[in-house]
Records
---
Amino acid sequence: MTSRNAVVVGGNRTPFVKAGGKYAMASAQDLMTAALDGLVARFGLSGQRVDEVVGGAVLKHTRDFNLTRESVLGSALSPLTPACDLQQACCTGLEAVVYASNKIKLGQARLAIAGGVDSASDAPIVVTEPLRKALLALNRARSLPEKLAAIAKIRPGDLMPVPPGVVEPRTGMSMGESQAMTTKKWGISREDQDELSLASHRNLAKAWDEGFFDDLVTPYLRVAKDGILRPDTTREALAKLRPVFGKGDTATMTAGNSTALTDGAAVVLLAEEEEARGRGWPVLAKVIDAQVAASDYVNGADDLLLAPAQAIPVLLERNALTLADFDFLEFHEAFASTVLATLKSLEQAGVGTVDRTKLNVKGSSLAAGHPFAATGARIVASLAKMLAEKGPGSRGLISICAAGGQGVVAILEA
Amino acid sequence: MSVLEMIYGTPAGKFVARKAGLSDPPKLRRGRVLPTGPVVLGELAGGGIARETLRLLGIDAGQPILDEPGARVKDDKGRDVPPRYPAKPGAIVIDATGLRQITQLEGIRALLRPVMRSLEGSGRIIILATDASAVEGLEAKAVAQGIDGIDRTVGKELRGGATTNLVFLKEGVRPSDLASTLSFLLEGRSAFVDGQTWRVGPAEVTHDLTPRPFEKRIVVVTGAARGIGAAIARTFARDGATVVAVDMPASGDALAKVANEIGGSTLQLDITAADAGAKITDHIASRYGHEARIWAIVHNAGITRDKMLANLDEKQWAAVLDVNLAAEMRINDFLLAGDRPGGLGEEARIVGIASTSGVAGNKGQTNYAASKAGVMGYVWALKDELEGRPITINAVAPGFIETEMTAAIPFVQREIFKRTNSLSQGGNPVDVAETLAYLCGPASGGVNGQVIRVCGQNLIGA
């Protein structure tokens, strides 16, 4: 079999902003179209056909059943560009990159765009189950009495919409509550969490100041910079925040060390290596390998967000690598304590220790924000650029956890 | 919109405005469009280049009518009037390249008088003369300057959007060197260029004139996200260019819109960065391949920090000079220093943007005027430094151009600015773009070291 490499050529994202903020009126499709258009412009692809665009969202309207294809149609890409939707909670963006890379490696595509979008502002509103059933009955009703009977079944209480929430259907617990249990179980201190959060803000602020995002981000709706970023935050300011997850005196998780609900979109341009070189395009990094894992959090045997700790050893083993072989480690910061618990878990399992100076050096989700499905593409594009700057042979590890107890990890190499 | 502006927009308001002398300005012919009426050639003794150049353009020039005493006719009041053209001429090209004596200037008068009232709307008067540096003797040199006076005055007397311009020919200029200039002046592309004078010399490399001169050529436009810059990007793309649209990272979304519309690519870049030149060449090499070279770079990015000098601090002073002048020079230095992937081609075009503010000064714009006059000085100096290389450097100096920026000027002031020129209106961004595209044309290799005003012959700094 011919061996083909899938390489990261570049990326683009919108700035990320807090839900209900400047993107409140933008739909997921608007955001994804904007991310695509910025990428198309950066690479002069207007009117051109890409073999496939793959992306998705976590919070998705039923009207968005064909979100990625509709975004492509709204973008400057050729309408002959096929697209597919994919969804794996917060892993969506990274899984999209894996999907597209695999197609490239198999020769099914030479050029692909992968990414994701989420708008917590544009989240679908769900009605109560009695109201939904009554409305369906009304729809089926033929005669006036039947219609009236259907309407009569509706009680005032049924009219309240069901608020959207990040709740695990199996446990009924919010992600923050689940993580609070993990935090307690692994003994992650408030100080360590705040420290990680502080580093995230400082690193991201520095990267913005250095112009690192000049060719990774395209402004949208008059927003040119990530809105969640607090360049001036301090240890003291973070320490003052009241815990929001967990109970009693032992609660340590605050709004400062947990990611906020965020709106934004991110995409990555991937190509078969020869194709990229033939076009004179930058070959920032190769997508080497990826691994997915799931944890049995329902029965309490595992933690909801620590599935990456299971995927990483498998990935390292298969590629004959250790944690020390990586120049950069990109651990998605769902919560500061998720990252810290994952690191602790890896250490305890004998996988190895992560050199903290190589961890999230350009900031991560705590400072940038986390539009669920967009995070993977944000990380892939940034890491690929960091590796290209570091030089040939440099390596990076990506770890992303997700709802449903899943995790995707991947290796990039310059 | 101010109350005044709203009243002005009503039919009654317009009626009052007309009574006050603020009639609707003529609508200018724009684009790659020739005049409707015939092109007339007035060839004076010793000329000849105009006829050959018009032939290159495929234009069959008509005969001129001369205002000679014997040819005059009586009007209904019994006064002597010059003979009339049977049909309104669209343009008259006056070949005065052979004029050396003061008495010969009469030939220009005799050619011009019959057209002054009969030229069609947006008609053209184009005068060709020999540059003073290429003629012998004091009288001949004085005559050259005399023609300049004619051009400037005629521009102020013409009505209906008609313009006049003078081109001085340098030693050794050939019809193929002149073709792009004559074509530009005849067509609507030069709509807002009026009463101007510039010089054309022999090109080091000659190219044929084509309607899509930038096909397969890369043109870099800074400040391309909006206003004049976006118009420049669109105009070059219309003429076939692959445009690299550069602007500040914060304007990236507007920039992407422009680039996607014209099939170009974006480079989000602060041009004042020390490595801006390298960023530009890296971008080009990584998008269009190692062999790709820049055909033209348009230094359009600019800022204003307007303040009366009494209130002007060092920060506002430095910012304007750095963006408008120093950055352009740093980028050019880098590009001119050597051949590199994505760098400047052998035979490239560099163009900058000056301003009538740099020519005449403008209250509250010391910093801006310094930077824009600086661009002019730089163009003249760099042209000399590039002697022997087939690279050209030129600039345009826009007058009042209708953009988002000028729309912010209070209504009354804006109306005054707009109307104080020979065409009684503001120019469009595309007018600046067309002039830049003409200067960057492959066939314009003989136009070098020129600063052309696109100002409708603004009264200020004329």
---
Amino acid sequence: MKLFSKLNISWLIITLLGFFAIDSLVYFGIIDPYYEITLVNILINMILAIGLNLIVGYSGQLSLGHAGFMAIGAYATGILTIENQSMGAFLISLVVGSLFAGIVALIVGIPTLRLKGDYLAVATLGFSEIIRILILNMTELTNGAAGLSGIPFFADWQTAFALALICIILVANYTRSSIGRATIAIREDEVAAESVGVNTFYYKLIAFIIGAVTASVAGSIHASYFGVINPSQFTFDKSIDVLIMVVFGGIGSLTGSVVAAVALGILNMYLQPFGALRVIIYSLVLILIMIFKPTGLFGTKEISLAKIFHKNSKPISEGKEG
Amino acid sequence: MKMKKWFFGVMSFSTLFITACSSGRGGEEGNSAEEDEAINIGSMFELTGSASAYGNTQANAVQMAADEINEDGGIDGQEINIEEYDTQSDEAEASSVATRLSTRDNAVAMIGPALTGPMQAAIPNADEAQVPLISPSATDDDVLTDEDGGVHPYAYRTGFTNSFQGGALATFANDDLDASKAVILGDNSSDYATGLTEEFTEAFDGEIVSVENFSEGQNDFNAELTNIEQTDFDVIFVPGYYEEGGPIINQAREMGIDEPILGPDGFGNDVIYDLASEENMDNIYHTSHFVLTSDDPDTQDFVSNYRENFDTDPDMFAGLAYDTVYLVKQAIEETGSTNSADINAGLENIEDFAGITGTFSFDEMHDPIKTVSIIEVQEGEEVGTSEVEPDIE
Amino acid sequence: MEAFIQQLINGLSVGSVYALIALGYTMVYGIIKLINFAHGDIYMIGAFVSYFMFLNLKLNIFVTLALTMFVTAFLGVVIEKVAYKPLRNSPRITALITAIAMSYLLQNIMIYVVGPEARSFPQIVQNKTYTLGNISINQMEIWLLGTSLVLMVLLQLIVQKTKMGKAMRAVSIDAKAAELMGINPNTIISFTFLLGSALAGAGGLLVGMYYNTIDPMMGATPGLKAFVAAVFGGIGVIPGAMVGGLLIGIIEVMISAYGNSMIRDAVVYLILILILLIRPSGLLGKSNKEKV
């Protein structure tokens, strides 16, 4: 398959069109600062949801600890960019946060990924709480409960857009690679996958690490865009928020996660004037959607150009879902 | 294939970077209310989420103050319109709401949020839009300070700072209670508690014999109190809110600990008497912004009005938020302008604003210059107040 | 030594609150494999229902208890019928999200309706304190521990000895097969929710009386801890919930007493994870080999 295949070029054009569309809307003031915050929030949530979807949707492991990895990225960026206020430091902090989150995921994953179902869920919840409590107690570095403020603003919507795109490409390619297929096999039937020689543990671990790294990237953007982080932002509730997005969009559908992040972001914007009623409406909507669309908006389906051009593109190269 | 996809990724990434022109966060010259329209004031509080107990009373008080002002003919004939939003006790949401208020709703001033974190997140948006943002209850010392140690030009608060209050309480423990050994019982996941603990520790002349921590949502303090009971001390400092303070007092007194208990302004809600049960509210000292039973007619009006509207007694959070609305009113009246940048200048120069939580002006760091009054409670009754000048710095 | 015993008592009383809630969690989980996140909030509703009954109807404690249990049981069954039943054949995680949404809904409706601030619970029973040397224990602590023990035994009896219990176990193992044997799984599941929610209601009342404070968020932290406790003991196993709840309570208190209270929750989770690594199905859980 060629690099400049019809597919890749089409995706490139679509992405660039999207980018320039947003850019010009910002330029002409149609996207005002308020929409911009909403947009960045959506992009951050998109990265979080995609990463968690890889863990929950593709490898089938319920993780309730996504917020912990997000906290790692956020603090890496907070600490490093306050120390050295430059774009370079921000980029370095992205890498440092990702590496650190990856290593923690490795350390956490090796023992816990052997656990099954709800036991794994509680273990990941526990680890994320442990990370949070450590952050609370390392006051020298993290300023404890008060958190870090005055983090310089290096991330803007363009950064968030670019990073979200990279994360999507990374995860989408991963799920279509041979390792990715093996990972999906684990979700479908772990025992069967094992019996045909798939090292299930190894693939679960890789998915877990990639998920953690993307969460850390989201945390970095969050820290650098909002300028304020503290441990109370990264609680169990945050992990649940991300999980809701994943399930709402469709477990095992990246398109679903992207659409869910956008849809919930827009829903939130429209519900904002309702004040305290908002959360009530939000939970009702969520319950209704779960009841009437239990597999989420997209199930495991993806929107794919390959399907649209299916006459020209061989399914083998793009996968039947690609 | 993987390689190629990667290449595609890098390609698009670099394209984005090359073409990304900085659009930045644009700014205008603040907001103004049209002369024939209502003056929009933003109210952004923690109506839901972990801090909803403090956010709701403040939002209520803000609305009530606005209604009162409108009944009395508004500000120079113009009505006030309160645009109320929920920050969900969340930083990102606070930032979004502040932007919405200042760029969409034409708010000329914003009141809130209750917590330090959301306040910090909202301040850059207020600065950018040149709309003053006044938090009634964000207490952290550095909330209003930017990274270079200067003050954020559009951020204010009407409550005490941690160092001011922690210092006052320590001075009181030193001088009035003659305490030489103190224990501290607080929630180390709350910046309110950690900030107060730090300042108290610094200003207290005696020895801090032990520091016990509990976590958010806990209501059984027997383990910590059993520890405390075994130590030799003169005073317990509880840097927390009435929701924790009440049960702590209750359990401590039931256990037979009868040393004085010292609390911050967070104790300032009468529910604490029920939570601790009245006979246990003995030998308690806490700072306060205002006294419910004060003879001051404005305070009396406020208290009876609040009771009528919300069927419950107001607490100090409500008092602070209520004052903040009148503070904005005074700034508008003194400058004679409804432009948010002018109002900001008015706030900066405000002199001796007489509110129910005390008479104050802002210092150069936009913190109110107030005296701290410490209320003494014996046998379930407030028996006296003493004013303390904290010896900080 | 006296201090240690006192702390042990403190731990038991904290733990019995967790146990009380964990019992309901584990029972529902045992039957339909659903982590019913709204359980902690039903407990909160129980506290508020009894609060308003005490204030407005001024009934005696046992009548209030019975009525509270009735109301929460009814609520639990309605929630099950409306929100969980349609999802019985959906992915388990969908039901989990629905349960979480239900928990948000209950919390925020209460914040909206009664206000978010803490209220003091009326003191119906004079709380006596018994002391022996320097050790003291009060009546409510005994009540709490006693109630959770009695309920555990009662539940265990219902599940193991009654016909209903047999049906519950059958549904838990294979709902389809149970249906073929003439058991109506819907009735059994409703019964489970009825029982679990009634328990939560009773728990709410007792804890309200014990700590003398209630608020709409009161279910969140104990709910999460109880869930952890249930897993700790082996989720789905009734005595496991009891053991898990009490142990977590005791561990928490002992860390506060003899360790560093700043890292208390971290240590609790660390111990939990270690236990799970040694016994992957919790302390009393049976490890089921997955069927091929």
